[in-house]
Design a protein that fits this description.
Elements (H helix, E strand, L loop, with lengths): L2 E3 L7 E6 L1 H8 L3 H17 L4 H6 L1 E3 L14 E5 L4 E10 L4 E11 L3 H12 L8 H6 L1
Parallel strand pairs: 2-6
Antiparallel strand pairs: 1-2, 3-4, 4-5, 5-6
Length: 139
């Protein structure tokens, strides 16, 4: 699911990218859940070019890294799709290329969210060789 949303504002494109695991999660959903999920993603992404603060209100930052750990901050967020479903994603602003990049990692229900979240964290930050994942998650 790679999509670029064209905007009226020539300096910012919104790019939506997804992982294979996200695509697997999406394919296992009912048609109504898929449609709702895609609509929520597109609605949030469409806000970024002109209403960035409103778009960020639809997201909740997932703070697992202590601030200033080797200069990294977490760009992981969760987006609520329904009372039961959440998306785990990153939002990266790229001012050099005038892009806002959404990378969709997982769709998880409330009961499985922590396991899905930990899997995303492990896959994204396994290269932090100066600290073990356990010490990062324990902070």
């Amino acid at each position: 699911m790679l999509e670029t949303i064209e905007t009226n504002d020539c300096y910012m494109d919104v790019v939506i990218d997804s992982t294979s695991r996200f695509e697997q999660d999406l394919s296992s959903m009912s048609k109504d859940q898929k449609d709702l999920t895609i609509q929520k993603i597109n609605d949030c992404a469409a806000l970024f070019p002109e209403h960035k603060s409103n778009a960020y209100r639809k997201l909740r930052r997932l703070p697992f890294l202590p601030l200033n750990i080797s200069g990294y901050d977490s760009s992981l967020y969760t987006m609520r799709i329904s009372p039961e479903l959440r998306i785990i994603l990153t939002v990266d602003e790229d001012p050099i290329f005038g892009q806002m990049i959404f990378t969709l990692f997982r769709i998880a229900n409330r009961n499985d969210f922590n396991k899905a979240y930990q899997g995303v964290v492990e896959s994204l930050y396994k290269d932090l060789n100066h600290q073990t994942l356990e010490s990062v998650l324990a902070s």
